[in-house]
Structure to design on (205 residues):
C-alpha cells in the first residue's frame, strides 16, 4: 500500500504511473489471495491498454509477417528514434524498376540462433550514429510488424547486432506510429501475436 500512496501523492499522475499502479494492484491481489485464479486474466486486461493506446513493457514478443518471421523477442527503446533488425549478407537489387534489398535475418537467441533469407523494399540509406559515436551507413527497409493485436508498417535499419542480446530493437518512431505507451516496470505485457498469412513473397526460407 505504501507504493500506492507514493504514486498518488504527486502533483499529477502520468499515464505510466497509472499503468504502474495497476501492476501493483494486480500484484497485491495475487499475493494476498483476495482474487480467485480464474479472475486474474480479466484484471490483467487493464495492463494491456490505456485509453486508446496499447501498453507494452521493455521487452515484447513480435512477428514480421511479410518476412515470414514469428516468435521474435524485441527490446523496446524509447531513447532510439529508429528501429533496427540484425541482418548480414545484405545485397541491393532491383525488382520491376523498384529498389529492393536481400539479406539474412538472424533470429532467436545467442544460444539458439535461427537464420532466414529475406527480401524487402528498400526505403533509403541512412547514416546512423551509435552510442559510442561511430557513424555507419545502413540500409533502411519497410515491412509490417505485429505486436499483440496490432499490425502496422515499420521502417528498420539493417545492422549487425551479434553482440546484442536482442535481435530486434523497436524505436520511438515505431512506438508512436503503432500508438503504444511504454510501462518500464514490466515485460511481455502483450500476448505473442497470432502469425497472419503473408500476401507477399519477401520471406525466403
Amino acid at each position: 500500500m505504501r507504493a500506492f500512496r507514493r504514486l498518488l501523492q504527486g502533483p499529477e499522475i502520468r499515464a505510466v504511473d497509472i499503468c504502474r499502479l495497476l501492476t501493483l494492484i494486480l500484484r497485491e491481489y495475487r499475493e494476498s489471495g483476495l482474487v480467485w485464479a480464474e479472475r486474474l486474466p480479466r484484471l490483467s486486461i487493464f495492463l494491456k491498454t490505456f485509453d486508446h493506446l496499447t501498453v507494452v513493457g521493455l521487452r515484447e514478443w513480435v512477428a514480421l509477417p511479410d518476412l515470414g518471421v514469428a516468435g521474435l523477442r524485441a527490446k523496446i527503446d524509447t531513447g532510439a528514434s529508429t528501429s533496427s533488425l540484425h541482418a548480414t549478407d545484405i545485397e541491393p537489387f532491383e525488382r520491376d524498376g523498384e529498389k529492393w534489398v536481400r539479406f539474412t535475418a538472424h533470429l532467436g537467441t545467442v544460444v539458439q540462433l535461427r537464420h532466414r533469407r529475406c527480401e524487402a523494399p528498400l526505403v533509403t540509406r541512412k547514416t546512423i550514429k551509435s552510442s559510442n559515436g561511430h557513424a555507419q551507413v545502413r540500409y533502411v527497409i519497410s515491412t509490417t510488424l505485429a505486436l499483440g493485436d496490432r499490425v502496422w508498417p515499420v521502417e528498420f535499419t539493417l545492422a549487425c547486432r551479434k553482440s546484442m542480446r536482442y535481435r530486434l530493437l523497436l524505436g520511438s518512431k515505431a512506438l508512436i506510429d503503432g500508438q503504444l505507451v511504454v510501462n518500464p516496470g514490466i515485460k511481455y505485457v502483450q500476448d505473442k501475436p497470432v502469425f497472419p498469412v503473408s500476401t507477399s513473397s519477401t520471406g525466403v526460407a
Summary: The chain has two domains: 2-49, 56-204. Confidence is low (pLDDT under 50) at residues 34-46. The chain is about 20% helix and 45% strand.
